[in-house]
Design goal:
five-stranded parallel sheet, single chain, 8 helices, 33% helix, 10 strands
Length: 272
Amino acid sequence: AESLLRYTKAHFGDNVYAFEFGNELVGPAGIEATLTVEQYVDDFCRLYDLVNDIWSDDPTSKPKLVTPDTAFEEDWYGTFIKMTGERRCFPDIITWHQYLLGAGVDPKVGQRAMDPNVLNQQVKAGQIVNVTIASNLVDSSQMPEIWMGEAGGAYNSGRHLVTDAFMSSFWYLDGFGILSENNHQTFCRQTLIGGNYGLLNTTTYEPNPDYYALLLWQRLMGSNVFNVQVNSDQMQDGLLRAYAHCKNSAKDPGLTILLINLSNETEFLVNI
């Protein structure tokens, strides 16, 4: 690993954004392994020291460290944050994985993609992740970024005509909005190409609907997030979702509001 890192530094210099320390290797939800938090912290701190040493001549170009990239386990994550803080080897980015809609082989995946009760699970999950990380920091100045490290709606390659269709954009954009309100900075999609949850068609490479949803989000929504309250006599069971962001720049000072109607039977008259 050290040889690879030194080769990377010599040949690519400051062109490496980050290193991810494994994928789904830890805790009870691990896939390829189920490393204990103690073993993983030991290894992560070795990597932390190694990267700091190799990039010591130019700390400003030092790659970020991304970890642990697995399904969220509150106790495991909390202990990891506390132990790395105590040992002063701070992760730059904390990631977690989620497949909100369940297994792609389940014929009810499409129903869950439009079910506010299912989508609301993201609210609780985002809050727990944010609070777990913040409350276990040894040094509050070392708050890492929080990323959704992997999400594609339904696991096992998604579901045709759901995660590669227009209806997928409802859970996808709703997830952006919810996690933005819970201190998440980035959402990594599974995948660009591959399976029924890819942003591009696997045969033609033409964009699937979620590609355009992502493109619109990036162009219109900003990094300044507002807490939007929905008040309506017609409001039932979270069918109307509302999110507001602004870029707060001289070129684009405006506010963008995202409204999602999960019902095909209810109309909403919106006054802002």
